[in-house]
Amino acid sequence: MTLRSVQSWLDEYGESHQNPTNKLIHWICVPVIVFSVVGILWSLPVPAAFEDISPAMNWAVLFAMAAIVYYFILSPSLALGMVLILAAMLVLAHWISISSWSLLWVSVA
């Protein structure tokens, strides 16, 4: 099995997403879905070993780190953009988790 290039992914995406409504839905919904995954992963209990590594270590941070590695394999410039997006999502998840709101329920909603 070989890794597909970013260009092949984008070409396939471009062919199958020509409808303007479809594009708008993706621009809105994909980040919301990713944030929901981040929030749910953040809400999961973590092993004590995570605390030994860092008090900030949780499943969402591991997910973000794995995603960044994947994007760097595909394209360093794309990965840099994802670093910013995922960092913002992690900051937002942290903020919600320390607020009076339930991060899990915000993510599920």
Total DSSP helices: 6
Name the helicity range.
over 70%
Q: What structural category do the secondary elements indicate?
A: mainly alpha
The end-to-end distance, rounded to whole angstroms, is 37 Å
What's the average pLDDT? 89
Strand-residue proportion: under 5%
Major sheet summary line: none
Q: What is the rounded Rg?
A: 16 Å
**Quaternary state of the chains:** single chain
Characteristics:
single chain; 109 residues; mainly alpha; 6 helices; globular
Concise overview:
The chain has 109 residues and is mainly alpha-helical. Helices cover 79% and strands 0% of the residues.
Note down, in words, how this protein is organized.
The protein is mainly alpha-helical and 109 residues long. It has six helices and no strands.
Which helices and strands appear, and what pairs or packs with what?
Layout lengths: L5 H11 L3 H24 L4 H6 L5 H16 L1 H23 L4 H6 L1
Helix pairs in contact: 2-4, 2-5, 4-5
